[in-house]
Write a structure and sequence with these properties.
Helices cover about 25% and strands about 35% of the residues. The protein has two helices and five strands. It is globular. About 10% of the residues are buried.
């Protein structure tokens, strides 16, 4: 999942001093009823972040490529 550049600015601000290797940011993510801990990774092409969605999450929430997804991020 790609996180847009505007939201990425807010994430970077919240994570000041806690940015990890490769510019990653630790986050707890909730999509629907599924919640997990992961890292967000910078996406150079868009200026945003990439949020990896595990196959288990996609299956549990019925997500497919191209779907619009609302995610709650805790940084």
């Amino acid at each position: 999942m790609t996180i847009d550049p505007q939201t990425a600015v807010e994430i970077r601000y919240e994570a000041l001093g806690r940015i990890g290797g490769f510019g990653s940011v630790k986050a707890t993510v909730t999509i629907g009823r599924t919640r997990w801990s992961t890292s967000l990774f910078p996406h150079k092409e868009s200026g945003g972040f990439l949020l990896p969605l595990k196959a288990d999450v996609r299956r549990a929430e019925g997500l497919a490529e191209g779907d619009t997804v609302t995610a709650r991020l805790e940084i």
